[in-house]
Structures are given as C-alpha cells and as structure tokens.
C-alpha cells in the first residue's frame, strides 16, 4: 500500500489537500474521483506509513485576498518553486494558434473556474466548443494531463510557444493560493492589453509600409527594365548628357547588369547579419544601440520599461516572490540590455536592498518611476504602483509612436515623390537639349 499527497478542487470550486492511501496511482485517482475531488497534483508521500486505503479529511482552504498573500510572504516562508518544465510538444498539424485565441482561452477558463466548475470539466467544455482544431487539440491534451493528476501549471509547460514562463508561473501561483480564477482573469487582462498595443502598432505602420514598399518596387522596375532602353536612345542622339541623366544612366546600367549579384550579396549579408544578431554578444550590442537612437530610442526604452513594470506588477499581485518575478520579467522585457540590468537588480535585491535602490543606481529608469516604486514599497502597494507606472509608460509610448507614425507617412510620400521627380527630370533634360539643338 502506497501513500500519495494530493491537492484537488472539489465540485464546489474550493481547494482541498490531504494524503490518500491506495495500491497505486490509478486507484488513488479513482478514490479521489469517487469523492468528487479533481486533483491538480498527486505525488507519492514517502514520509507516510499508512496501510489502509482511506482518504484523510481534506483541509479546505479559504480564498485569501491579495493583501493577505503579501502579508504572509515573509523571510521565514520558503521560496516558491518554479514550474518544472515538461518535454515540449508540438501544437499539431491542424494549424497555428494565435495570441488572440490564447487570450480568449484564458478569459473563458477564468469565467468557468469562477463559476466553481472543476478544471478537467472546464477544459473538456472548452475543447468541445473551440472552433480552432489546433487549440482544441491542445486543450484536450491539457485535460488528459490534469485528469492523470498532473498539475495544470506543469501541463502548460509542454507548449512553451503558446504558454510562456510568465503564464505557467502565474497559473502555479493561482493553484497554490486557491485563487486560480482570479489569477487567470488578471492574466487575460494582461494578454489583451499586449494584443491591443501590438494591434495599434501594426495598423499604424501598415500605410507607411505600403507606401515605402510600392515606391521601392516601382523604382527598381524602372531602373532595371525601363530606363536602360530610354537612356540608350538618348545616348545615341547626343553625347553631352546632363549630370542628372548621367547619374541615372550609371545606376540604371548597374541595376540591369548586376541585379542578380546584388540580390545574392544582400541575401548573404542578411543571413550573416541575422546569425550574428541572434548571438549573445550581437543581440546585446544591437539592443543597447537601439536605446541610443535619437528619435526611436525613447520609444524603445518606454516599451521595455512598460513591459518591465506591467509584468512585475502582475506577478507581484498574483503572489509571486520578488526574486522569482524578476527572473521571469527578464525573459519577457524584449530587450537584452535591459534584461541584463534586471539581473543586476535581482542581485542587489537578493542582498537585502529594496527594489527602488538598485533601480535608481542603474540610471535607466526615469525619476518619477523610481519615486512611485519607492512609495509602493513603503506603503505595501508595490503591485499597484508598478501597474500605474506601466500605464504611464504605455501612454507615453503610444503618444510618441502615434506622433512618429503620423509624420512617417508624409515623409515617405515626400521621399518617394522626390525620387520619382529626379527620374522625370533626368529623362526630360536631354529631351529639352535635343529639341533646342534641332531648333
């Protein structure tokens, strides 16, 4: 007879825990299921010497508030363990799963769990109604793992491309605190905010990108296939071509004769540059260089700081310890240079400093942000202050991006117009020369 320590969710949605004695893991799951308990974790308990197949009275935990969780997270309490990664699985052959679908799945799971529906039943219901075959397959796999006694947070790590470290860590905190529905609701808000910002940026740069692409394509076609014939005729008619026409003739001849060599060179340079950019040294230099750009540097910096504050505030509100939260944030901030600075913050915080002290020492964060974080630590409302800081940075980033993109469209139009105007002038000048000579 073996003993298993379990954590489970009852039919009323409340969490329970205890020790169950059974011949094997399957019988233990059957015993829990017969009592209306759906386990979120089931592990062998080596310290128990019980010999009868019975379930100890479950200890039902009331759902603590966020302030209670933060108050109980003291120096004497052991640090939360990170979610152990499972073997990654492929999404499947039914298509891709979009970020918007993951946000919708998270929101629906939060609603179902808030209605005291057990995790396996909620997953089965979502899998049945899901229109995306790829996501339905993923949900069915998650449901099978949870029914076998696998923690929901651990089963999510099988799909690292769909559920990030931030996602699985917050789910683990929700399981341990008994507030999985509230944590999933906060996570859904976080994902939807990120999707909204990404959608605004994509829609804003769509028109300038179209104008730039059309201008480049038109110029390449003119210089490669049209200009050589026209300029060849003009060269036969006159030897003294104007300077703009000679410049256009040289560029056109190069494009028509060496375009394939240029294309191969660009491909080789692009591949070599990409391989260098994904190295540790290359990505660090590029991200640091991006922050120093005259105009766009402030935009990149505001985006990185907004991700830092939003992610850290969301994790801290969910009950994740500060050191663990900083470890997760460094992988989601989107800038290697800022991520290395977060490592420095974590080291200083580990030594006993408050969060505001190492942040101020780095000189990367604005003074207002440092003051708000310091006030948040003093008042015990660090998560609220971090989320307010994130909102401020996001508003600043959106205002700057809208201003830059509103100017980018006219600038591109003027640039394309100037290029086309140069080509027209270069073609008309020799025609005027020839007509004057004939008159």
Please tag this protein with its features.
439 residues, mainly alpha, Receptor-associated Protein, 3-stranded antiparallel sheet, 16 helices
| Euclidean distance between termini CA atoms | 113 Å
Question: The CATH topology of the largest domain is what?
Answer: Receptor-associated Protein
* CATH fourth-tier homologous superfamily of the largest domain: Type II secretion system (T2SS), domain F
CATH architecture descriptor of the largest domain? Up-down Bundle
User: In angstroms, what is the radius of gyration?
Assistant: 30 Å
Tell me the layout of helices and strands:
Blueprint (H helix, E strand, L loop, with lengths): L1 E9 L4 E8 L2 H10 L2 E8 L21 H7 L26 H16 L4 H11 L3 H15 L4 H5 L8 H13 L2 H58 L5 H35 L2 H12 L4 H23 L3 H8 L6 H15 L5 H7 L4 H13 L2 H57 L1
Antiparallel strand pairs: 1-2, 1-3
Overall description:
By secondary structure, the protein is mainly α. It folds into three domains: about 1-60, no CATH class; about 100-190, Type II secretion system (T2SS), domain F (Receptor-associated Protein), CATH 1.20.81; about 210-439, Type II secretion system (T2SS), domain F (Receptor-associated Protein). Helix content is about 70%, strand content about 5%. The chain is built from 16 helices and three strands. It has a three-stranded antiparallel sheet. A hairpin with a 4-residue loop joins β1 and β2. α11 packs antiparallel against α16 (about 380-439) and α15 (about 365-380) runs antiparallel to α16. It is elongated. It starts with a strand and ends with a helix.
